[in-house]
Amino acid sequence: MTKVTIENVKAREVFDSRGNPTVEADVILSNGVLGRASVPSGKSTGDNEAVELRDGGDRLGGKGVLKAVNNVNTLINDKLKGADPFNQAHIDQMMIDLDGTPNKAKLGANAILGVSIATVRAAANAEGIPVYRYLGGVDLELPQTFHNVINGGEHADNGIDMQEFLITPIKRTTFRDGFEKIVNVYHQLKKNLEKEGYQTGLGDEGGFAPDLPSSEAAIDELNRAIKDAGYVPGEEIGIAFDAAASSFAQDDGSYLFEGKKRSAEEMGTYYEGLLDKYPAIVSMEDPFGENDWDNFAKFTQKNGNRVQIITDDNVCTNPALFRKAIKKGMANSFLIKLNQIGTVSETMEAIRVARKNGYTTMMSHRSGETEDSFLADFTVAMHAEQLKSGAPARGERLAKYNQLLRIEEELGKESNLAHFPNDVDFD
Ligand code: PGA
Ligand code: ZN
């Protein structure tokens, strides 16, 4: 049998859920098999994220990605032609070496990630197996999902300072069962907001974007909607939030939160108050800004045994930064975003580092997404415990959840279901 190799790599500019240009890459193998992938884009990005190469200039507000597309069509194509598509680590390393910068600034992480994922797809297609099976073998798990049903911060035009208010199905018999519960709460929340006279237009991640008076009011709405839908908060449905505190952190180390300048200590006391008042809160993300490692670590030492504390903007799916955070005792969980680091292999390394050190991981979409559902397969393959991919609304969000429903159906009795927080001990 002749060896299958990469024949051709090419890319095009397509558009994401915010109407911004993004990269779609094709990897075509010598046997004619195609793998295709498109790349998401964040808004509340961390300083240490790999570089998303944009064209600048006048066209499409400077957000065009034709330079990245061209890098795929020329430099990357020349390099990968004839390479083994089943050696993912080698493919990714060749692109990292070709780029030669520490943050993928030359070729663009958007160019590199598009090709990295398209290679996985092409290899899986050539084997005639689904992506989750190609990457995960027989150790597969349907994740605990977190659904951002009220959008604030930089994802919505309302006055809520925190970015995401999420619900998660704790008690569930199947993935589908949990998802149906979330859908019920989502519809209940809409009814409640309408009754109270709030707008129910959607934010970037499919959650409602009502102009609520405060972040606590948003958490209160979730608590109420869970109850009104007939579930017990904290027992059947849990609550989580992503403060994305970098977006209201000030240069002098204080936080401009809800109209008042507050010290990090005051923010800590505020969060502790929320945890005391709403025992249904099982997870929180980025309570402090990305340069505030000391206060983040202090808060974790005090509260890390009662709640999952995720860091996202501080560590940007970067294995080296994960190691630094672990040494410092910052957070007890890491957010994982493929495009923050830029290749599938490095994302896997980051997950490995987290696991070996007892940190939980939550896989994540970006606020700017496409219809690509790779994230769903990747999460199942990595038995990644947790996934956040927005509300059960908007096609680009549903693309991931509907794929998880299909995967559960395909796996049948083989399905394993993550149980958070019950199977995690933070002590
Ligand atoms: P982003 O938001 O995709 O806009 O960065 C997601 C997050 O902060 O978790
Ligand atoms: Zn975040």
Automatic annotation (TrEMBL):
Substrate binds at residues 155, 164, 285, 312, 364-367, 388. One of its GO terms (molecular function) is phosphopyruvate hydratase activity. It is an enzyme of class 4 (lyase). The keyword Cytoplasm applies. Keywords: Cytoplasm, Glycolysis, Lyase, Magnesium, Metal-binding, Pyruvate, Secreted. GO terms for biological process: glycolytic process. Pathway: Carbohydrate degradation; glycolysis; pyruvate from D-glyceraldehyde 3-phosphate: step 4/5. GO terms for cellular component: cell surface; extracellular region; phosphopyruvate hydratase complex. Its EC number is 4.2.1.11. Pfam families: Enolase_C, Enolase_N. Catalyzes the reversible conversion of 2-phosphoglycerate (2-PG) into phosphoenolpyruvate (PEP). It is essential for the degradation of carbohydrates via glycolysis. PANTHER family: ENOLASE. This is Enolase. The gene is eno.
